[in-house]
Design goal:
The chain has helices spanning 2-38, 44-70, 82-96, 118-136, 181-184, 204-214, and strands at 78-80, 102-107, 114-116, 142-152, 165-174, 218-224, 228-236. It is an alpha+beta fold and 242 residues long. Helix 1 runs antiparallel to helix 2 (44-70), helix 2 (44-70) packs across helix 6 and helix 3 runs parallel beside helix 4 (118-136). The chain is globular.
Length: 242
Amino acid sequence: LQQAQKMESIGNLAGGIAHDFNNLLFPIIGMSEMLLEDLPEDSLEYENAEEIFQAGKRAGDLVKQILAFSRQSEHKMSPVRVQNVLKEVLKLSRSTIPTNIEIQQNIQQNCGLVMADPTQIHQIGMNLITNAFHAIESKNGTIDIELKEITLKDNELSVSELQPGQYIKLSVSDNGIGMSEDTIQKIFEPYFTTKELGKGTGLGLAVLYGIVKEHKGEINVYSELGKGTAFNVYLPLMKKIS
């Protein structure tokens, strides 16, 4: 309970700061865009304005991540087939991950619909696959991706806070370095990261946690040092209209 209250207070603080920061970004992005229209493209001033504009856009993306973590952002929810989004994620991942890393997939193609923001579902997939890649980057490892429909009953609810019913379960696992129990307890906290300097902000899994909760789902992790890690995301299926 204390941990939940701490996370909620950090989320509220982060959300408030992010909104204020967003207001400061509007004139930075807007004015630099106007400068780009007025300045000759081959000038040093144009290059400087371009740098300001790109930095402003990157800052805007960071604000979106913080708002997603604090669950204060507005998203357009619609019926989504996760398997279709995952197809795009895998296509993009395969083009960026070295070929010595094997990506195995077992995706149920007739999975039902979930009410979700497709961009955020894409973010979930990319984040989990990228994390798995970083865990096995130093060796010729394997990433396993599985998507299937499941039914959770009262006596099977080892997954916290979920109600009995039908869900989509997305699992992303690797045979990489694994994590200790102490690390597992901290991975969803904002700004906690095990990655070396320059490889991560520590916001990734905290943002992921916020997205999954916003979709009334659950995320859990199983890991063993030296053997690998598995992340499981549960999202409620939409009820079929008969």
